[in-house]
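@channel sequence for tomorrow's demo:
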Amino acid sequence: MAEILRDPINRRIVEALQADGRLTNQELADRVGLSPSPCLRRVKALEAAGVISGYVALVDPATAGLSVTAFVRVRLDQQDDHHLQRFEAEVQRFPEVMECYLMTGESDYQLRLLVGSLAEFEDFLRQKLTRIAGISQVTTSFALRPIVYRTALPLDR
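structure tokens (generated this afternoon):
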């Protein structure tokens, strides 16, 4: 754990902001038992240390018309640095790709995609993904429904 997060007040600050990033400094200070000035100093220190890397609004995919979640496993025909870098650069350009991980095991990468329909997925697959040079295999699974979806990190594990 990062040294700055060993402090229980800093952990409480991060946990509160993970639950509600729109808290005012006064509300945050009240929740963690500090006065506003020291609370703000701690938040700024957490930001400067890179523990807090930004603030976002979480949008429900279904209400945005993105009701299909696909998990795509990709195997490359070669795994040298050149081929890995080329794939990674290309896949970063696709807005449908929400996450991409370099993996161990049977596939080289796993992607999580959000699209509006199976037809949109087919278009993504045929017009974007499989046009990246060096792909030897693509395997897809579709999510039926989410069971657990978290954005808050488990700091007190």
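heads up for whoever presents: DSSP finds five helices and four strands in the chain.
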